[in-house]
Amino acid sequence: MPKLKWTDSEEIAIRLYEKMPDQDPLAVRFTDLRDWVIALPDFGDDPKASSEAKLEAIQMAWVEEKQSQ
Question: Cα separations (Å) of 49 from 3, 25, 55?
Fold first, then answer.
């Protein structure tokens, strides 16, 4: 299975929701979000390649995932 990259925002959001279903994604600081993404077991991208835009895309996908449940 290929490792997750920063651009896999929807899949990352699903994993974060599964790990922390009660967490409000809009209350998460980007520094924490970055750390949580890097800590995912199947994340394999360069930690230095994160950006505010990529983190925001993950955050918004997480919001959508939480709302769809």
Answer: 15, 21, 11
4, part of any domain: no
pLDDT tens sequence across 18-48: 999 999 999 999 999 999 999 999 999 999 9
CB-CB contact of 59 with 33 (8 Å): yes
Where in the sequence is the domain holding 62, given as residue range(s)?
9-68
Q: Which of 35, 41, 42 is nearest to 55 (CA)?
A: 35
Instruction: Check whether 68 has a pLDDT greater than 90.
Output: yes
Q: Is residue 1 part of a domain?
A: no
pTM of the model: 0.94
- Structural domain tally of the chain? 1
